[in-house]
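From the pipeline queue, job 12 of 40. The input is one protein chain; the requested action is below.

Action: predict structure.
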Amino acid sequence: MRVHTMYPALLRAYFACRSAGADRATELALRRRRDALLEDARVRREENAQNASGFFDAHTHGQGGEEMDDFIARCTAELRAYSVELNAIARESEDACAEFERRVATITASAAKIKIDDERARERGGGGGTPADAARGVDDDTVYDDEDEFGDDDDDDDDD
């Protein structure tokens, strides 16, 4: 198969799939590997052309190798389409991660601002509770004891 004239296109499509979403270092390593395989295939095709050895010659030049030609063409087309899909998924994933990081940064900045505001309020002698406490109507100066709103303790025994 490596000496087939359509092999370089198949190999390029394969490596396009492998490099989808890859980082720069991985992409460069894959490119070097692809280029080495393409060079090896080129050398083999040249050697095969010089030898003109029946079986390989017939299958590399489309003479009697229509099934192989069709198979490689189908595989190449499928790999190219798959590469497009993989790259789209990789881009969507990168976008989703970037959006998540933006949201986390916004939440972190908001939480830091709330903390600073609370600390400043405490320094000024304010209630010093958190914004959530303020929303619930809780004040740091609130004293909690065992008496209910009527001044009684929670025991309902009417022994008095």
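Job complete. The chain has five helices and no strands.
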